[in-house]
Amino acid sequence: MANLPHDREPRSREMKVLILGLARTGTSSLTAALQKLGYKPYDWPDRCMLGHLPRWTEGLQAKYLGRGYPLEVDEMDQLTSDFDAIIDTPCCLLVDELIAAYPTAKVILNYRDPHRWLESMQDTVFAAARWPSWRILAYTDPHYAGAIVQHHITLWDEIWGGDEGKRCLEMFVEHYNYVRKVVPPERLLEYQVQEGWGPLCHFLEVEEPKEPFPVVHTGAQFMRTAARGWRDGVGRSIRNVAVAAVCVWILAHGFYWGQGYFRDE
């Protein structure tokens, strides 16, 4: 049985903000903005680099597909202890769990026009995921590329049905309507990054920076980042395969010479 909230281990940082909008709705720009405001957001790159992505993916599988183990409050606390904001997939799909776990955190629902969102997804996330070599890298670089591939399969293929058109658009609308339904209005800010600092800083009750609002990870920037991640995966795969080959060579020669030794005896 999970511990009650007052029994949790103390966090390094209090969870202050839950950003529940989906990917490609200005999440990277919003992350950069929150960092400038002094927050420490737990973003997609953090989950990948810290090795947390498989556990969040399993949390989605438990909730939506009925397999694996759900993420309990204590474990979410452990994974996010060093951060005070949560943003982007797959975390934003665990709406009920997050708002229950962090009842004092403010909620930002970052959004964009659904049809423009779908076009962006088709040009970036879905396009990069179709590179056939990802499936090979999933085996040769399991801890990074494999985790990303499994997340994509779980979320976009299994949970959202694998449709990159009408069904995907329907799921987008359903997600946003659900967040609006379950989050109290006084705790919620519906926000587009094009609105800049004003609404965001007013909602968070912080002073507006004088510098321009950051614009990060446009479509072209996303594809460059994806390509860099792919190249890194290839590099790790080469090293992993080389190490495996050397280990096999050593074992094979050890077996061979061992057999010869016993034959001589």
TrEMBL record:
Family matches, as InterPro entries: P-loop_NTPase, Sulfotransfer_4
Source domain of life: Eukaryota
Gene3D superfamilies xrefs: P-loop containing nucleotide triphosphate hydrolases
Signal peptide bounds: none
PANTHER family in the cross-refs: P-LOOP CONTAINING NUCLEOSIDE TRIPHOSPHATE HYDROLASE PROTEIN (PTHR36978:SF4), P-LOOP CONTAINING NUCLEOTIDE TRIPHOSPHATE HYDROLASE (PTHR36978)
UniProt protein name: NAD dependent epimerase/dehydratase
